[in-house]
Every structure is written in structure tokens, then in C-alpha cells.
Design brief:
The chain has about 475 residues and is of the alpha+beta class. The protein is built from 13 helices and 19 strands. The strands form 3 sheets. Strands 4, 5, 6, 12, 13, 14, 15, 16 and 17 form a 9-stranded mixed β-sheet that branches. Strands 1, 2, 8, 9, 10, 11, 18 and 19 form an 8-stranded mixed β-sheet that branches. Strands 3-7 form a two-stranded antiparallel ribbon. The radius of gyration is 21 Å and the shape is globular. The two termini are about 40 Å apart.
Length: about 475
């Protein structure tokens, strides 16, 4: 089987602020590329968060395993170092999960997210490790009347399920004691949540994998995987033979038919501000707690340790089929501008401007939950569908993929993350054309709501199409 070419992650002008900061501290040295033939028990294609966590969990469970990671560029330089660094689980996703999975599986998914976050916290706070971990919960804020109604749905759902201890409703006064933005009306504080410096975390995971005896080959793009007993993973200069193969290639899994049918390509664009800690102290934003508004295509944001604001827009362009290397998924001025406008809107007193902006593709599953599985008739495993929520979910990936590799029937492999039926998206070109129309319509409607204007009638009608079709995703 041929694999999709990896998304370029070595172009310096596309680096995130996180990557630039981490490189200034740790440099950019790489492990030698693969040459010749290597034997391993497990070959992992992709050295981002998913591949690194999987390698570490495998070595923890069975230290004798020979594990090899192959990355097309440098481990951690892809999506892992380009996200917002917000760490949260699935308690806040219950209103979305409940109609799809029911109460038991939804709560189970949220509890596994809690276990994953505990593991991540233990790793991030180990002595001598500074990845800017701040575990002070996660805030969802309402910035319009429509979002206040959504906030009430969260509260009712949590109360009906008996898990209302996971969140606290905040009045405008209480909310502004935590972050006094003039746009905030009400809020929900989820006790589970944190922020992290994603590039520093990627460096730490990479070093831990090396310390654990994982073989790491960088600048080793995999061309194909030959299925067999053992499998053979081939690069341009060498090969790894292994009983098990993990495709931890992020959006690269769109080249697999089980993934392509149930997943679509999206993109996300953050910007980073100048440092202005004095202003942030003045508005009570003195703890680096992550936040997001309650739009469908959220503004996600967080303070950094050195007094900056990262503001991201989850409303980037879509792309056709498996074209994850499309330049527009990494460079879209309109999406970057939308994030910059959000920064000015929520924090009008910040001095200076935007010092960095970047974008990267994301894959969104039809039910917004990541999925880990094994290709039928093989020992080739994969993970996909992080839907922009990958920091904590990739820890779940490490547990799920390790259990699949080791043939363990446990809380991970029996959960919805590994065992569920996923709804198919429409075939192309209907997926791309329809998705783009709905995305644009929802953005226009939510922009109007935020500005206190009436929603455009045509946009409102288009945005309601998924609901009218009986879909459970893409609905407001």
C-alpha cells in the first residue's frame, strides 16, 4: 500500500511561534535517516504526539519490544507543534456525544479522557521538565445571547447525567474575576483542563522515546507499506520489517479508505500576540488557563507563560478528498485575519500586534471523536480524527494503539474510541462543495450573532441543511 506524502513541516516560514521558541532553546538537531534494513517488533510511521505516545506506552508495558519510529522530517514538527496547546478532555463534549453514543459510552469516553490527562500531567510535571504545564481547568465563555443558550444546554446535560461536579457556572462578575474581557457574558469552568507549550512537549516526548530505547529515524519519508508476516515499511534508502505497523500520520490517514469515508479535511489558524503581561494582570488574566467561546467554529485562546495571547480560529478552509498537502490548509490570509480580529475583539487593550501566524490541516470525523483501529486482515493499525483536539486525545491514542498491538481487550479497546460504527460523509464532490457552503454560511451567521445583527436569511437556511438531512455533525 502506498502512503500519502507527508505534509511539509520543514519550511521555516510556516513554523509556529512555539517551534521558533523551542528551537531557540533546544536547537534543531535530527536523528540519522534510515539506511539499510532494520528488524523491529513495531514500526511507527510518524513521530508526532501519536507516534511518540504509542512508543512510550509500548515500552512501558513491554520493555523488551523493539520499537522504531520513522518520520518524514523531524519528530514533532508537524501538527504537534502547531496547535493552541489547550488540553481538555470530553466532559465539555457531552452534549455532542450524547445523541450519538448514549449516556454510558459518552461518560466512558469522558472518563478515559480524564485518565489520559492524568498521565499527561504526570509526564509534564516530572522534575526537571518545563513544558509550561498549567492545570487550572478550562473555560468556555458565552459572548452572545445565542451562546448563553448553548451554555444552558451544557449545564442541563451535565445535571441530567449526574456529572455536574465537572463544571461550574460563572456569572459575568465571577467570569471577569478570572479574565475580564469586555465581550464575556457568562462562562463555564471545567475542572479538567490545562495548557501546555506544545513544541516543548514534543521535544520532551522525543527525548523520552530515545531514552527508552526507541529507534528514531528522521528525514525518512515512508513510501509504502508492504503487508505481510512480517510487514515491510519502505523508505527511499531503507526498510523496517515488523510484525506490527502503526500509521500515526495524522491527516495522512486520509489515504486509508476506512478513514476517508468518515473523515473530512479542515484547517485551523492561530495567531500569537506580542507579550503584554501588565495588561493581562490588569484584566485578571494572570493564570494561563485555556478558553474557547461557544461558536460552532470556535475562537480558542489561552495566555502563555510570558504574557502573550494565542488566538485561534477553527474556521479555516476545507479541502477535497485526501489533499492534505494543499497549500491553502497552511496559508489562508482570511482565516489568519479572522483570528487576529478575534484577538482585538476579546482583548482590545493588548499593546503591540500579531508577531506570528500559521495554519495546518486537521481531520474531522463525522462524530467529532478520534478513532483507532486495525486494517482488516492485517496487523497495520492507525489513529485519526482528532478534530483539532489532539493534545490530550493523542495520549488516548497511545493507550488504544498499544492495546490493539498487544491484542489486549481492555477499557481502551472496548471503548467508543476503538469500537463504534461511524457515519459516512457524502462522496466527493458533494462533501467538499456542500461542506464549504455550510461552513461559510455558519461563519456568516455566527459573525452576525456576535455583532448583534440579524442572521442573513440565505446563510441561515444553508446552515440548517445538515440538520434537515438528519446529520448529527455540522449542525448548529
Amino acid at each position: 500500500m502506498n502512503l500519502l506524502d507527508a505534509v511539509r513541516s520543514d519550511v521555516e516560514q510556516d513554523f509556529s511561534w512555539w517551534q521558533q521558541d523551542a528551537r531557540s532553546l533546544f536547537g534543531s538537531s535530527t536523528q540519522p535517516p534510515l539506511t539499510g534494513t532494520v528488524d523491529a517488533d513495531v514500526a511507527i510511521v510518524g513521530g508526532g504526539f501519536t507516534g511518540l505516545w504509542t512508543a512510550l506506552v509500548l515500552k512501558e508495558r513491554q520493555p523488551h519490544l523493539r520499537v522504531a519510529i520513522l518520520d518524514a522530517y523531524r519528530c514533532g514538527d508537524g501538527a504537534s507543534s502547531r496547535n493552541g496547546g489547550n488540553v481538555h478532555g470530553y466532559w465539555g463534549a457531552l452534549p455532542t456525544l450524547l445523541p450519538i453514543f448514549g449516556a454510558d459510552k459518552s461518560i466512558d469516553a469522558a472518563r478515559l479522557g480524564t485518565l489520559a490527562q492524568k498521565r499527561l500531567r504526570e509526564f509534564a510535571t516530572a522534575p526537571g521538565r518545563d513544558v509550561w504545564w498549567v492545570g487550572e481547568g478550562y473555560l468556555r465563555v458565552a459572548t452572545s445571547a445565542a451562546q448563553v443558550q448553548k451554555l444552558q444546554v451544557f449545564i442541563k446535560t451535565a445535571r441530567d447525567l449526574g456529572v455536574d461536579s465537572t463544571l461550574t457556572r460563572l456569572s459575568q462578575t465571577e467570569l471577569r474575576n478570572l479574565c475580564n474581557s469586555p465581550r464575556f457574558l457568562e462562562g463555564l469552568l471545567f475542572s479538567e483542563g490545562a495548557t501546555v507549550h506544545p513544541a516543548r512537549l514534543a521535544y520532551a516526548l522525543r527525548q523520552s522515546a530515545l531514552d527508552a530505547g526507541v529507534q528514531v529515524f528522521e528525514n525518512s519519508p515512508v513510501k509504502r507499506v508492504r503487508k505481510g508476516s512480517p510487514n515491510k515499511v519502505e523508505t527511499g534508502r531503507g526498510a523496517v520489517t515488523a510484525r506490527d505497523v502503526v500509521l500515526a500520520t495524522y491527516t495522512g490517514t486520509m489515504g486509508l479508505s476506512p478513514v476517508a469515508r468518515t473523515t473530512t479535511l479542515f484547517s485551523s489558524f492561530p495567531v500569537m500576540s506580542e507579550a503584554d503581561p501588565e495588561y493581562l494582570e490588569k484584566i485578571n488574566y494572570d493564570v494561563a488557563r485555556g478558553l474557547a467561546d461557544l461558536r460552532m467554529f470556535t475562537h480558542y485562546f489561552r495566555r502563555t507563560k510570558d504574557g502573550r495571547i494565542l488566538m485561534g480560529s477553527g474556521s479555516g478552509p476545507l479541502e477535497w478528498g485526501s489533499m492534505h498537502n494543499s497549500e491553502k490548509l497552511r496559508r489562508d490570509p482570511a482565516s489568519a485575519q479572522r483570528a487576529a480580529i478575534g484577538l482585538q475583539r476579546f482583548f482590545p487593550g493588548m499593546r503591540g500586534g500579531v508577531v506570528a501566524s500559521w495554519g495546518y490541516p486537521i481531520e474531522v470525523t463525522s462524530d467529532r471523536l478520534p478513532y483507532f483501529g486495525t486494517l482488516a486482515g492485517t496487523r497495520i493499525h492507525y489513529g485519526s480524527g482528532y478534530s483539532g483536539h489532539g493534545v490530550n486525545a493523542t495520549v488516548i491514542a497511545g493507550e488504544c494503539l498499544s492495546s490493539l498491538i498487544l491484542n489486549q481487550r481492555d477499557q481502551w479497546t472496548t471503548s467508543a474510541f476503538c469500537a463504534r460504527t461511524r457515519m459516512n460523509f457524502p462522496i466527493e464532490p458533494f462533501r467538499f462543495i456542500g461542506g464549504t457552503m455550510v461552513r461559510d454560511a455558519i461563519v456568516r451567521c455566527e459573525d452576525a450573532e456576535d455583532a448583534g445583527r440579524r442572521q442573513p436569511l440565505v446563510a441561515q437556511a444553508i446552515s440548517n441543511i445538515p440538520r434537515a438531512m438528519g446529520m448529527r455533525v455540522g449542525t448548529r
